[in-house]
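Reopening this ticket.

The earlier resolution said the output was attached, but the attachment link was broken on my side. Pasting everything inline this time so it's all in one place.
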Amino acid sequence: MQAVKAAPLDPADFIARCEAAAGPAGFRIETYGEILGCPLIALTKRTPGPRPRLYLSAGMHGDEPAAPLALLEMLTAGVFDDRANWLLCPMLNPTGHARGTRENHDGRDLNRDYKDQLSLESKAHARWLTRQPLFELTLCLHEDWESQGFYLYELNPSQRPSLAEAMIAAVAPICPIEQSAIIDGRPAAAPGIIRPISDPLLRENWPEAIYLRHHHTTLSYTLESPSALPLAQRIAALRAATETAIASVK
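Inline output:
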């Protein structure tokens, strides 16, 4: 399926919008690195009392604008309220977004670099993550230009109650669900759901989700909207899945 063409997302403008929305939503801005003059930022919100710790990321690939825009919409809409402690990384690959490319300015796919950490971006991000507590849940927002519908990856090594089916059900009224028996080269466990059969830690090139599963969480989801659909529809699909997941964490 051919991706809908869209202008690259201006990282400086996007980060400025995140920073403007952060304060009113109760977030603190942390700059954990810089790449070609563009800051790498995290937004953190600590809520008093015992609360789950939830981590969300977006902007890993510069040709996937719906993911960071969905995160910004939720930030502005007050989705990240006092029910949890929140840690958000809204723009992991600014130079890729400036160019509208999957890879960064060096031609590196950052989502295959979390084991070796050869890029400045993944190295700085991993260093920031080492200073954070363990997370009850991590959500990595993405898009897929080859997909016919929405799908997700689940990493759930402790066999905790799955959130996958609830997320798929929430997205289904908004956009198609991927129906292929093989999704992204892997067998589907159910329509729109991938659960790894082999140990993901054995993969040679780690994506962010495997790094998070190994070091920071026992429940991780990568959410993938089909980038051939209109941008607003993709944003709505990512929001529906994300908001369904976080609503289930107590």
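Reporter confirms the inline version is readable. Residues 231-247 form the longest helix (17 residues). The helical segments are 11-22, 66-77, 94-99, 120-130, 164-171, 208-215, 231-247.
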